[in-house]
Amino acid sequence: MLTKEGLDGIEVEDVIVSSLQKHYRNEVVFPVRKVNEQIEIGFYEPRTTNSIPLNNFVTTNSDIEKVLFGVRDILRELDVSVYDPDTNTVFVRDIDVRRSETNDGMIITLVTHNKDDVKLLELSGLITEKFHNVNGIVLNFNPHKTNEIFGKENIPVWGNDFIEDKINGVSFEISPKSFFQPNGGQLKTIVEKL
After folding, report:
1. If exposure means fewest CB atoms within 10 Å of the residue's CB, which of 91, 110, 183, 186 is most exposed?
2. Which family does it belong to (predicted)?
């Protein structure tokens, strides 16, 4: 492939294999949809807006998995309106959860179609009551009919709008839309190799 692209003089080193093959991801985002009249989180069927509900996540950190299912259950309990991609209406579109490898703190970002919902404060209260390692809840406003997950505007609802992580003594503030290597253990390995 490198020869085809005119890069045949470049030497590629071996892949650095991660020690963790499961439950390593410290950031995930999933669509929230109604499936058979029940609020679910999961993946999309190929080339559709139909959601396939998931009951476990092989690559996701187990603390994040608990938060994802907990938030889903709270959405069900409150009967929060969830996004309909065909009509581009209603409230919660996606849930993003980020976890600090350093201190296990998390932020939850609710990607929403509108900025306010009468159940937002109750939802936030139930989340923080149930999950004491959640450091912040952020609303990301995305009113557009698009396949882009995040909109331009983040609105802090409760607590911090970032998590803090450290790699080799260097601190990073990780916001909802920033990229940060989701495999924290592997990131340390890569930084040490450099």
Report:
1. 186
2. Belongs to the class I-like SAM-binding methyltransferase superfamily. RNA M5U methyltransferase family.
